[in-house]
Amino acid sequence: MGRQPCCDKVGLKRGPWTIEEDHKLMNFILNNGIHCWRMVPKLAGLLRCGKSCRLRWINYLRPDLKRGVLSEAEEDQIIQLHARLGNRWSKIASHFPGRTDNEIKNHWHTRIKKRLKILGLDPVTHTLVKQKEKVEEKIEINPEPNSLKEQGETREKENEAKMGLDETIDLLHDYEELCGSLDVGLWLNQETTNSNSQSPSLSLKDSPNPMGESSSMKEDSIQKWVDSVDSMLSWDGFNQLEQELLFLENLQ
DNA sequence: AAATCTGCCAACCGCATGTTG
DNA sequence: ACAACATGCGGTTGGCAGATT
């Protein structure tokens, strides 16, 4: 026979995590580490399944998380990596210490996809779509204006479309500069082959990181964190959580 | 001021893969 | 070798906040 089930899901809490739950989970992990996620909620006194605890820790509570919006440089690197790796968010996230796959995935769907569309690029294949036709369609909205007002509106639309085109060309140029030296076409071909065969050649260990970050650097930073777990009990975020919890307790 | 729309993000769900007995 | 389970991953969704009508 195999192992025991992960969780029975009956009577388990779902939805947003409270400060108190965060505090319990973080306190438990900092004191005991992670050996088995199934046991974590039970031992930490949480009415959550292990999966939910794991997700909360990885995406929100981990002390090595980098907060704040992604920089333009990070965004550019995500585009490069996506061209190369596709939707393998965890692989992409591994190039950004302190960033989570969920964060990068969300950022991709909310920001980067739009940016690529403006560039006239297909976010999936990273290839050009017929941008010029789109602009011409926009100009053709009202081909024969009758009144002066309509003529003015038409001119406005034309200018808007032309400005959009100029902006797009600039952005496209940037994109070419960004990806040109990286031979996206070659990557795409490699990736098509590799994704079919699940080749390990794209793993962090084997492929050099274009930004010069290595998996050993990441491991090193994690090791530093592990080494300093004791002092973590006084780190800022944790203190803040503790204060918030005390505040809530005082309210009750 | 209220209603509606839009963007964002945390969290969930289900599947794939790895691990254990 | 196989079944049962744990873990990791990517897709999707629900709900909140701010913007717009």
UniProtKB/TrEMBL annotation:
Could you tell me where this protein is found in the cell? Nucleus
Sorted alphabetically, which Pfam families does this protein's record hold? Myb_DNA-binding
Q: Which SUPFAM superfamilies match?
A: Homeodomain-like
Is Transcription tagged as a keyword?
Answer: yes
What the entry lists under InterPro entries is as follows: Homeodomain-like_sf (IPR009057), Myb_dom (IPR017930), Myb_TF_plants (IPR015495), SANT/Myb (IPR001005)
Question: Region entry Disordered: which residue ranges?
Answer: 140-161, 192-221
Primary localisation category: nucleus
Q: This protein's superkingdom?
A: Eukaryota
Q: Give GO BP annotations, semicolon-separated.
A: carboxylic acid biosynthetic process; regulation of DNA-templated transcription
One MF annotation (Gene Ontology) recorded for this entry: transcription cis-regulatory region binding
Looking at the record, the residues that make up the Myb-like domain are 9-61, 62-112
SMART domains reported in the protein's UniProt record: SANT
According to the entry, every stretch annotated as the HTH myb-type domain falls at: 9-61, 62-116
**What is the protein name given in its UniProt record?**
Myb-related protein
Species of origin reads Actinidia chinensis var. chinensis
